[in-house]
Write a structure and sequence with these properties.
It is found in: Cell membrane. With about 325 residues, this protein is an all-alpha fold. It has 15 helices and two strands. The longest helix is centred in the N-terminal third of the chain and has 39 residues, at about 20-60. About 25% of the residues are buried.
């Protein structure tokens, strides 16, 4: 064996340092996700976060619409004045009542329509498209038409009621009647929209579950209650939350129903949205209007939080079972 064979091989040469293009590429790979989502957060900060914070700032001052630059510090006085106003509590009660009257029938009807559309019907595509027509209709046009239908003297609703012996109902002056009329507009506009959401949820339920239930002898009704409804629970929670938020922010329908920002002669169907508009653009109190906006925001947060908590507790109970 020669001496050269006993010599150890020379260690490999170290790799060259990364070039500048490689460093730039790695930096771009790390920063590119933030660059892609930056437009959304920029728009959200400009048109969502900033108005929210500025509204909270304005709610602590006395600001008039005629002189928005003259701001007088009031602290929480706008909120205390708000809670001592009877019309605020009236609008809050009206918002809750109209929300219940419009949301519950709306979602129940939407669920039934979605269940029918889930079957193989003729002209199924046309029917699904027709469901969106009320939602696509302008709220102004829809409300004006319904205001004519609910007219006291020449309205079609009172005419049909008279055929069955019911006297004319003053749909714009009566408290319960006016709230039912406004809720009817909301139900007509949003039932088809929620029906298509339920239909999409039904089509995501595995067909094997229905086949297994049918083999066990379950009728269509039992399949609906024991297969469809459990599978639709997350979708139902979503529609309840969205409908609740929409009911809290209800504005266009009660405003155009009679054309009054006070929601009727005795504020019988004035919602929180109308009350805020009346304070800000009717009485020119921008500070108090900002306080109302923040109260509405906190109400929405509380309602959504309660719905999320109930859904979470329901999910935990089912997981334990």
């Amino acid at each position: 064996m020669t001496l050269s064979a006993l010599e150890t091989p020379a260690p490999p040469a170290p790799p060259p340092p990364p070039s500048r293009p490689n460093r730039a590429r790695r930096a771009w790979q790390k920063m590119s996700p933030y660059a892609y989502i930056a437009p959304f957060f920029t728009l959200f900060a400009a048109f969502g976060l900033f108005p929210l914070i500025y509204t909270a700032f304005v709610s602590l001052y006395r600001v008039e619409l005629q002189t928005p630059g003259d701001m007088e510090w009031r602290g929480l006085d706008n909120y205390t004045a708000l809670f001592s106003d009877d019309f605020f509590w009236t609008s809050l009660r009206n918002t809750f009542t109209i929300g219940v009257i419009s949301t519950v029938p709306q979602l129940v009807m939407a669920l039934g329509l979605a269940h029918l559309l889930n079957y193989r019907l003729r002209a199924r595509t046309f029917l699904r498209t027709a469901m969106l027509l009320p939602y696509a209709t302008s709220v102004a046009a829809a409300t004006l038409v319904f205001a004519q239908l609910f007219g006291r003297d020449f309205g079609l609703i009172n005419y049909v009621a008279g055929l069955v012996g019911i006297g004319p109902i003053d749909w714009q002056t009566g408290t319960v009647a006016s709230q039912i009329a406004v809720s009817t507009i909301v139900v007509w506009r949003w039932t088809g929209y929620n029906a298509l959401i339920y239909l999409a949820g039904m089509q995501s339920i595995p067909q094997e579950l229905y086949e297994a239930a049918e083999m066990d002898g379950a009728s269509k009704w039992r399949q609906f209650f024991h297969v469809t409804l459990p599978g639709l629970r997350p979708t139902i929670v979503f529609t309840v939350i969205v409908s609740t938020i929409g009911a809290t922010q209800l504005f266009g329908e009660p405003l155009l129903f009679e054309g009054s920002i006070s929601g009727g002669i005795s504020h019988q169907y004035q919602t929180l949205g109308l009350y805020m508009y009346e304070q800000g653009w009717g009485f020119f109190h921008l500070g108090r209007a900002a306080a109302i906006a923040w109260v509405m925001f906190l109400l929405i947060v509380v309602v959504v939080g309660v719905n999320a908590l109930l859904a979470y507790r329901r999910t935990r109970k089912e997981a334990v079972r």
